[in-house]
Amino acid sequence: MYTTRIYYQDTDAGGVVYFANYLKFFEKSWFQYLLSVGISIPEWEKEGTYVIVKTVSLDIMEKLLYGDTISVETSIKEVKKAYFLLDHTVSKNGKITAKGRTTMVCIDAKGKPKRIPEGFRTNLLKHAAD
After folding, report:
1. Alpha-carbon distances of 103 from 64, 76, 96, 126, rounded to whole Å
2. Nearest by Cα to 62 from 37, 80, 89, 82
3. pLDDT, tens digit, for every residue of 35-56?
4. Residue 53 CB: number of other CB atoms within 10 A?
5. Would you state the torsion angle of the CA atoms of residues 115, 111, 108, 37, taken in this order, to the nearest 10 degrees?
6. Domains (ranges, CATH) in the chain?
7. Is the pLDDT of residue 70 over 60?
8. Segment (H or E) for 15
9. Which of 109, 125, 92, 104 is nearest to 27 (CA)?
10. H/E segment holding residue 50
């Protein structure tokens, strides 16, 4: 779980979190989550596998404000041969304020899509939600 405070830079002129900043929260959360389950993106990059976001969805249920403290929880929703889905839940004081999903794909050093390497895929499947 990734926890952070909402800083002034995260907000719009009204002091509300600007929608695009949720993507930054998701990014930090999924990186930390994968590391916690034994998947080091920098290590896979050394082997020629890079992970990028292909698509993203965001559903904001309650606004977040400057100074709020939030938690972002990421989980593996689905794993296919060439991509995987991550679900993200943003909470404040235990109440869900937003949800999102990212479709992650693997690419090689030249930016061409590639299958998820077997060791990477096996670890993802081991931690995927039922």
Report:
1. 24, 10, 21, 18
2. 89
3. 999 999 999 999 999 999 999 9
4. 14
5. -70
6. 2-127 (3.10.129.10)
7. yes
8. none
9. 104
10. strand 50-60
The pLDDT-based confidence of 129 (bands split at 50, 70, 90) is confident
Q: Which residues pair with 95 in a beta bridge?
A: 92
What would the two tokens of residue 2 be? 């990734």
Contacts of 37 (CB under 8 A, 6+ apart): 123, 126, 127
Question: Residue 122 pLDDT > 60, yes or no?
Answer: yes
Q: Which residues are catalytic?
A: 12
Encode pLDDT of 72-94 as tens digits.
Answer: 999 999 999 999 999 999 999 99
Per-residue HEC secondary structure of 58-115 comes to EEECCCCECCCEEEEEEEEEEECCCEEEEEEEEEECCEEEEEEEEEEEEECCCCCEEC
